[in-house]
Amino acid sequence: MLAAVCLLGVTAGQRLSIPAPALLGPMVITALFVFTGTAQGFAPDGVLRSLLFTLVGLEVGLRFTWASVRKIGRLFPHVLLWIMAVCLGCGALAWAFAATLGLPLIDAYLATTPGGINAVLATAASMDANLPAISTVQSTRLLIVMLLTPPIINCLARKRTSTLKPQPAAYKQLPIVNESAVS
Length: 183
Hints:
This protein is mainly alpha-helical. The chain has helices spanning about 1-15, 20-35, 45-60, 65-100, 105-110, 115-125, 130-165, 180.
């Protein structure tokens, strides 16, 4: 079922020219199956789940190079400050989310925390957290960001190019004619 949804989603995403068709296509197909009640329980289990989380860990870990580690080291103080600010903001949002929906605070925090959905879901699964709630909020966030980002970037790019275009010259100044020389 997982392979069929992925194949169908990627194909549909490419044909519909949606951004990131390999990611959003399967997500949209899965959402359609879940909302219509056609399929339930899309969470892999057992050995497949362990394999998928291992692959996610390798995908993230193998992207680090010595150059990226050095750059992170130079930016560390600034990055740490912004990470703390984002975590506090997510904590406040999670608190409001937990109070409103009656979820445990840790589930609400995992649902609202930014970052890689793969890492968040791996953490949630290892903690026996509320995976349906967390994956729903994370997937919704990801869908909104992925669908809204291209139009926003296009709009900003159009505005930027329109401000960079040369403006038409104001009226050309006519040469001053000396009236005494004409008479």
